[in-house]
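Help: read this over?
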Amino acid sequence: MKCALCHGEDGKSDTPAGRQKGAPDLRTEEIQKLKDDELIRPIEKGHAGMAPIQSRLSNESKQLIVTYIRSLALKKAK
């Protein structure tokens, strides 16, 4: 829910908040080629206006987010 405010449901980041903050399109090759820990780091620590949420998510939840981010590339390809 919080992620979608900027990144949108499709990960494209074509939302008012996403455009304002310069949120990256999570479907791009640049993002998709990142290692899992590189995707988790901004979730944990925050990045470019994104609040850190490390203490609110279990490791399992963080991994589910990474899995979801990876699935967005498949949606872009369709």
Notes: The chain has five helices and no strands. Helices lie at 2-7, 16-21, 29-32, 36-45, 59-77. The domain at 2-77 is CATH 1.10.760 (Cytochrome Bc1 Complex; Chain D, domain 2). Residues 27 and 72 are 5 Å apart (CA to CA).
